[in-house]
Amino acid sequence: ERFASPGKGSGLRSRRRVRPGELLYRAEPFAYVVTKEQLGGVCERCLRRNEHLHRCSQCKVAKYCGKSCQKEAWLDHKQECRCLKSVEPNFPPDSVRLAGRIVFKLLRQSVCLSERLYSFSDLQSNTEQLSEEMKDGLRHLAQTLQLYLKMEIQDASHLPPVIDFFQIFTKVWSCDSAVEN
């Protein structure tokens, strides 16, 4: 069950005894990217290692096990593909690619099984706990994201309020730092 944890956000707890190692929940992530270091070594869809991957004929960045993985990934990759082509020969940081996929998913109002527990809007940004230096770094990433998405989103001011580039980075950073701690 979900529960509020004052000062820490929300949490999950089991309402029954759990055995060590027992799987409690499994779902596709809301959004993910293959890191720059792993590109070309794993399928962008299923994340399996494979030496004989087929690359996207458009962006030439994304690689897949085969046609089925490529078709399954197309909804998430289609807009990203155009953005990757538009910034060639530059390549965006992993965090910018991830934030881009989050934006596209939010715009599609796509529902993911993982959102049965939490939706992206449920995540807290904890902006007030960030140093000014960290905020400046995240603002820079938000500007980089805006440039990266220019091919798909010409005017970010017309986006729904839920899609705030800076807030997306604060939420992703908060999740990442919580997992590391």
Automatic annotation (TrEMBL):
Statement: the UniProt record of this protein carries the keyword Iron: no
Its EC number(s): 2.1.1.354
Catalyzed chemical reaction(s): L-lysyl(4)-[histone H3] + 3 S-adenosyl-L-methionine = N(6),N(6),N(6)-trimethyl-L-lysyl(4)-[histone H3] + 3 S-adenosyl-L-homocysteine + 3 H(+)
Residue ranges of every copy of the MYND-type domain listed in the record: 43-81
GO terms under biological process: methylation
Gene Ontology cellular component terms for the protein in this record: nucleus
SUPFAM superfamilies: SET domain
Enzyme class, first EC level, given as a word: transferase
Gene3D superfamilies per record: 1.10.220.160, 6.10.140.2220
Gene Ontology MF term list: histone H3K4 trimethyltransferase activity; zinc ion binding
Keywords: Metal-binding, Methyltransferase, S-adenosyl-L-methionine, Transferase, Zinc, Zinc-finger
Pfam families for the chain: zf-MYND
Protein name per the record: [histone H3]-lysine(4) N-trimethyltransferase
Natural source organism: Aquila chrysaetos chrysaetos
Source species taxonomy: Eukaryota, Metazoa, Chordata, Craniata, Vertebrata
